Amino acid sequence: MIDFKANPLFLAPMAGFTDPPFRSVVKQFGADVTISEMISSNALVYESQKSLKMLEKTSFETPYIVQIAGGDEDILKKAVLILNELDFIDGIDFNCGCPVNKVVKQCAGSALLEDLELFKRLVGVIKTHNKKQFTSVKFRLGFNEKYPEKMAKICEELGVDFISIHGRTRKQLYSGSADYNSIAKAKKSVKIPVIANGDINAQNAKEVLKITACEGLMIGRASVGNPWIFYEIKEGKSVDKALKKRIVLTHFEEMIKHYKAMGVSIFRKHLHEYSKGHKDSSAFRDMINRIDDVNLMQTKIEEFF
Q1: Are 109 and 203 within one domain?
Q2: Are residues 165 and 259 in the same domain?
Q3: What is the reported pLDDT for 47?
Q4: Which cofactor does it need (predicted)?
Q5: Are 60 and 24 contacting, i.e. CB atoms less than 8 angstroms apart?
Q6: Do residues 191 and 252 both lie within one domain?
Q7: Same domain, residue pair 251 and 151
Q8: How many independent structural domains does the chain possess?
Q9: Annotation-wise, does 171 bind a ligand?
């Protein structure tokens, strides 16, 4: 289902952005694997209806992986058992990289990199109970220092199918540059597939693969307002204006299908990104902030792009 010999491109989970409409767009234009927004295992177990809505996938998404986060073994097990009942999921990814304070304070995300015994137990819980095809783990280079080989080896010993490594520590948040050499060291220490993540764009993608010797790449922030990045990496050429317009309109159509009328206002943040670098983009953003009508929004998108 995932051909690691072909250097697959993954869409990284991003809260507020990698919803079903966005995932369907990148899947149609070059992404090989899509992952849900990060789902709290607590929310999945105790507020299941709201969280189950977030888990929905589109017809384009195969394989489709759901990412969960958490720091409690029992809750994590219950969350995995809930996901096991959903036929449309192909894998479960465990988030050990989120650097946000509210996640770290719950002893989840990158907080687990400070306690590798707990990290090992929690990854073991997911691997033991997951009935899906893939069990994967996403983590950073470390909490304050860099020791990605330690996490990589733990994952390999537990039978994890592949890992994704963001080339920063938790301390760095999103500052500085991703350290591809540290990802390369982790890759060298294990035999399971490793996916490189952090600061990857169409210009440096081949170089990152060369430096890290990883099987694939995971792209997050660089795809926002630029979902054609997957196409550009694969084809080795830029997307023309006509295709960009088609992609923006496809994204808008998917938003309306998924969110109905609410899709208009939710799509504004994407249009703010899409319009960057265009002539009169400031006036365009100001105008669309006041539009709530689906047909009018579509007309303005067609005129601007």
Answers
A1: yes
A2: no
A3: 80
A4: FMN
A5: yes
A6: no
A7: no
A8: 2
A9: no
- Is 166 a known ligand-binding residue? yes
The whole-chain average pLDDT of the chain stands at 95
pLDDT at residue 124 tops 80: yes
* Per-residue model confidence (pLDDT) at position 271: 97
Would you give the DSSP letter of residue 169?
-
210 and 259, same domain (yes or no): no
Specify whether 203 is located in the same domain as 217. Answer: yes
Domain boundary among 189, 219, 235: 235
Confidence of residue 49 (pLDDT cuts 50, 70, 90): confident
Do 136 and 251 lie in one domain? The reply is no
Residue 209 belongs to a domain with what CATH number?
3.20.20.70
Is 155 an annotated catalytic residue? Answer: no
Name the DSSP class of 141.
S
Q: What is the pLDDT of residues 82-118, one digit of tens each?
A: 999 999 999 999 999 999 999 999 999 999 999 999 9
* Domain of 99, in residue numbers: 4-235
Mean pLDDT of 227-236: 95
Give residue 112's pLDDT. 98
Percentage of the chain modeled with pLDDT above 70: 100
CA distances from 268 to 142, 214, 264, 287 (A): 35, 36, 7, 10
Q: Which residues lie below 8 Å from residue 222, measured CB to CB, with a gap of 6+? A: 199, 200, 201, 229
pLDDT value at residue 53: 81
Residue 63: asked if its preceding bond is cis (omega within 30°), the reply is: yes
Q: Kindly name the residue from 96, 98, 155, 214 that is annotated as catalytic.
A: 98
Is 252 in the same domain as 144?
A: no
- Strands 39-40 and 64-69, how do they pair? parallel
CB 83 within 8 A of CB 89: yes
Q: What's at 162, amino acid-wise?
A: F
